[in-house]
Predict the 3D structure of the following.
Amino acid sequence: MADAAEAQREESIFSTSYWRQVCPELHVEDKAYQAEVLARDRSVAAVADCREVRSRILEEGFAALSPAQLSWTAPVGRLAQGVLQLEKHGWPATFIALYDEAWAMARDAGAVMREATGNSLCMDVVGFLVRPSQTKGFSPHRDRQPEDWTPKGVPPETAATFKPDGMAKYVTLWAALTDATPENSCLHFVPRRVDPGYSAGDPDDGDPMLRIFQDKAAFQTIRSAPVAAGGCTFHTHRTIHWGSAGRRAGEVAPRIALSFGFSTEDFEPPYFSPKALPFPELRLRAALASAQVLNYATLAVGDREGWSALAGEMAGCGASTLRLLHRVFQSQAKRFHPTYRKEIATKFVSVSLNLPPGAAEEGAKTAEEGKGPGPGSQKRRRAAAKQVEDSDDDDDALMAMLEAEASTGEVLFHDDFDLLNSGEGPEEASPKPARKKKALGKRKKPRGTGKNG
Ligand SMILES: O=C(O)CCC(=O)C(=O)O
Ligand SMILES: [Fe+2]
């Protein structure tokens, strides 16, 4: 797709006319459309339905609303078509966040969430396009583990990630833009009552899935959550969930979804100021979508098919695409919360250093390519900095590392980070499936690699 690759440049990413041409049916920074959305005064969902969502989340860790219970301002079918258009141009589904309609939906989702949970949009927006013959939804995971929240200064105890009234401090609204069925990878949930790690936390050793599925009766507790286009599901940061492996043969319609994360500020601060809502300006949207793809890119190792559902054609991308996404984010980085910047820097460094052999030639040299000392020790750090300075080398991974360390005043990349390169520590080096998916595998020690593994 040479044309698509050609268009994937910073100039296009920041151009309203480019995005309008990709999806002519949708709006980009269209003031008249935005005014129409803001003028709307219908409620999105009945208060009684939101109450039911609340009690289901408290009881089971998940809930659902049917299309008949929801009245979205944005046309759901047009958003789905938009995702397919983006695919044609080589863009991941998350880039639907470039369009006003996605933010209209975020606003509606916010109204439902406020009523059901009291949580606010934290800008964790992700799009998915599952083609069951080639890809599937994310493999089983919890959206957050202690290694996601402790870098944000939140105490490690899982029990403290719930409010005094029991509501989770992080809840996702997952909107189906096409019908989501078991055949095309609808979501599946494990009810909290059968999941001992839900509120107590997972042991450092041992697989939470194996803890739960010890006998036949446990398998019967798995709940499939099909929803027709325009319906949505809800789950907390601790609910184990996944998209099923759909039917591989035959013509199964793609499953397209758009998810929004809602949190309390003390648990996960909004990635950029809510003052930019309801319609953030294009540069902010572009930076967010780019960063979100990087944020999940570590999935390429632990959940390749899930990563494909998220990244589309970018799933096999090399260094130059990663660098492009990172540059777009960096250009707006100051507008993002320091904890998010830190997370994206960590992910960017991690995925850059983990590119398979040959992928780096797509663009920049990586730190692996014989630069001498790798990141980690002070000596290496200084050597890296000096190399960057001396050779005017544009090694974005190293720069990101240094920039992130300088801006946070923390040493983010320790010597064990070298394991990412050495191949000596596969347990640590392989990001496990994690929203951001937090792995449900054997965990030898907490990993600091963020939401996706
Ligand atoms: O759509 C999927 O397959 C995964 C969705 C998910 O894990 C989430 O929204 O938290
Ligand atoms: Fe998830």
User: Anything to note?
Assistant: Confidence is low (pLDDT under 50) at residues 363-394, 416-434, 441-453. The chain has 20 helices and eight strands. The two ends are 30 Å apart (CA to CA).
